[in-house]
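Forwarding the complex inputs:
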Amino acid sequence: MIYGRQNEIVTHKRWDQKMAQEINVDCRGENCPVPLVETRKAIRKAEKDDVIIVTGDHPASKKEIPMAVEAMGLELLSVEGKEDNWEIKIRI
Amino acid sequence: MMSGKATLIVASGEHDKLYSAFIIGNGALAMGMEVSMYFTFWSLERLKKKGINKGPLSKMNFLGLGKLFLKWKMKKANVRTLDKMLDDYVELGGKIFACDMTMGIMGINREDLRDDIITEYCAVGTYVKEARESEITLYL
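Prediction (whole assembly, two chains):
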């Protein structure tokens, strides 16, 4: 009985803690300024520690999304791929 | 998380000028800035209900043929439409101000305009106050 209650409390605490989410933003085929705008929308909706993964093929956005990430003081985890096929990871 | 502010005066009602305004505005919002746009004179026509797409081109309009051609080229390049850009601008928290005085001159009433997207009806003082706090100000 006592064990049961303790377990319940523990489970409840764990249930309360939100897990960090991985959010995918697919901007392939999109032109200026959509990749930036869609990334910003995802950032606004995300919570602390969430990771946003943006994929795209618009060459200028590969440089500009990291600029926006820096301007907003977020963590740029990685920028990978070619100019016309890239993936950018951001941590909130 | 916001860093800096951009303040734009949108005085032209032409399709291409509106595109410039919303591309710059959305870009600045996406880079974490606060953005305010002041609509005055001809641009007020574009704030009318269903008015956003109705502007002619500032150059080579050719009675609307030029605009049709540009729209076709933009669709081919997968450029987002102006009304979607306006939706993005509002969703990202961009503010729209309508100039009271020019509304009077142009014979435009509040009932004619898209009240749902207008932050405030104002005069020049509001613009000056915001512009002096801004890192970027543009006149389009």
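Chain A has one domain: 19-91.
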